[in-house]
Amino acid sequence: MDNNKRPETMERITTLELANAFIEEQVKAVREQVGDKKVLLALSGGVDSSVVAALLIKAIGKQLYCVHVNHGLMRKGESEQVIEVFGKELDANLIYIDATDRFLDLLAGEADPEKKRKIIGGEFIKVFDEEAAKLEGMDFLAQGTIYPDILESHGVKAHHNVGGLPEDMKMELVEPVKLLYKDEVRVVGEALGLPHAMVYRQPFPGPGLGVRCLGAITRDRLHALREADAILREEFDNCGLAGKVWQYFIAVPDFKSVGVRDDKRYEGWPAIIRAVNTVDAMTATIEEIPYEVLHKITDRITHEVEGINRVLLDLTPKPIGTIEWE
Ligand code: XMP
Fold it and tell me: 323: Cβ below 6 Å to ligand 1?
């Protein structure tokens, strides 16, 4: 039997009962596969790796070693949430690596989007590899592969993602959610008790804010982007758009315009709001944000975020614009 093929008889997991049955079955399967050996997992904080982590913690507890690499391009509060949920609440073996300086030093001065992606992906593998080498006796590598990854790439999780791991890591794979669709992974995540915000997290590119801090990344502009993005998320939460819009974020280009603040000339970057709806990310439409919400967001970002002096709204569907700016 091809164990990368979802059986036709497999019921779609839509309820807590079905999720619990799946969890029970996988806990048993993982214990059988792993025995008393150790398992390594790259925990990005995204939905898939988080659900796999929670499932494996339930199955094998401290035999799981989670490595969270903070590349310095996370959204505000995300690495902190990983530490809180997995390190504290679930009491996992969590190795947290703040590699911000390594990534930002390497990225300094690089404006080409493809080169930026390569730097981030390459350095991620290096950092992860170094940590894996320090942890002796890892026999298995767990991955948050889900069914669309198998259908799309016939291979290892997200070829274009930062989570792509070196091919010469000769470890047997543990992929407990590989036959699940995204909506099912979320139901399973909730059944495992993960926070709603983590399980319903919007898609976030592997290179993170690196693709939204346009041109050559600088620390001050990256900081401004992160703060503006946090305000956008807060205001979308407040007005109920958060549960409705598929993906929303801020991009900050690397040019300034003149403005006025406190009666003085104030040069700053523009913050660009992008909020889109889509089913498969191949095409996307624009969410209509009420003007009063836009005014509130503009007011907060321009007053609270150092370095931003304008807020713009991207009205471009995909095609012709991609979702990300890069
Ligand atoms: P574009 O910009 O191509 O994006 O319209 C389509 C969707 O893919 C996400 N995206 C990524 N996701 N790793 C990912 O896991 C990446 O490198 C990456 N780049 C773009 C993007 O956020 C959107 O949801």
Answer: yes
- Flag whether the pTM goes above 0.85: yes
Tokens of 309: 């002096």
Give the pair of three-digit tokens for residue 44.
């990005």
- We find that the CATH architecture of domain 16-199 is 3-Layer(aba) Sandwich (3.40)
Portions of the chain given CATH number 3.30.300.10? 212-313
- Select from 74, 114, 323, 326 the residue to mutate for testing ligand 1; criterion: most ligand atoms less than 8 Å from CB: 323
Residue 70 β-bridge partners: 98
Atom of ligand 1 nearest to the CA of 206: 13
Ligand 1 atom index nearest CA of 325:
2
pLDDT tens profile 170-188: 789 999 999 999 999 999 9
Asked whether the beta carbons of 296 and 235 are under 8 A apart, the reply is yes
Give nearest CA residue, ligand 1 atom 3: 322
- In the chain, CATH 3.40.50.620 sits at 16-199
**Any atom of ligand 1 within 6 Å of the Cβ of 118:** no
Distance 60 CA to ligand 1 centre (A): 33
- Rounded CA-CA distance 25/54 in Å is 15
In this predicted structure, what is the pLDDT of residue 206?
93
| Residues 44-95 pLDDT 10s | 999 999 999 999 999 999 999 999 999 999 999 999 999 999 999 999 999 9
For the segment 133-164, what is each residue's pLDDT rounded down to a tens digit?
999 899 999 999 999 999 887 544 444 455 55
- Residue 186 vs residues 47, 55, 202: alpha-carbon distances, Å: 7, 12, 12
Which CATH fold would you assign to the domain 212-313?
GMP Synthetase; Chain A, domain 3 (3.30.300)
